[in-house]
Amino acid sequence: MKNRLFLTMVLLAIATSTRVFAATGGIDWMYDYSTGLERARIERKPVMIDFYTLWCHYCKVLDAKTYTDPSVIGSAKDFVCLKINAERERQLARQFRISAYPIIVFLSRDGIEIKRIYGYVTAAVLDAALDGILNDKGTLDARAEKHKKNPGDVEMGYLYADELMAKGQFKEATKILEKIVRDPSQKRKADATLNLAVCRFKQGSYESAVSELAKFSSRFKSSERIDEAQLFYGLSLLASGQRGKGVDVLKRLQERASAKWVGQEALRQLTLAREGKG
Question: What pTM was estimated for this model as a whole?
């Protein structure tokens, strides 16, 4: 019963994401840019980057007043949040043309800049900016219209399904991905197969996810997304009650993953699984 309760808690934590809040209940900050973008791609989340320096007064005020606000913390959970010391990461600061502090830069999950905010802002202003980005359906509507006009275009269908997944509309994405997987042209076959398995996982169809992820790992061993597939495979095994197999998959992934964030996440999930054993 205790193990079942623990599993339920883990599933609640990963139902919409494979991450949870930091132990303090504040924003789950990351500090490595490339790892953050990797996570954003896998979790299909936009990115918020706080460029700061140790001597910047308003950077400290931002930390003390704005980032501790419950509304901001709540909205930030749908972002990958990065804190970058601009004096230590000079090349990255130059890349983003950072010349004053603080500056908050928002990126799409593909690393494309969406918006930036200069200087100190109140919690209300930042929360409004976060909500505006999350509720922007411009890309989704545009891809939906293109898919409607040409439903036989595999690439457009794939991109539309991917955007649906980013908005949490997994049921709708599943319908499109099922058609792509069956398409004889084999276009986007590997990516669509993995995304379909992720949709199964997100909708609670853990046994189906296990089956499809196992097939993906067997058929597309050379895919650059193989680490991502193995992460969801391990989580799906845990969620379907196959704890031993799930732990084994995550352990191997933690030791061998070429994708840095995936290895970190596998370790975190292993820690949760081991704590739930006692």
Answer: 0.84
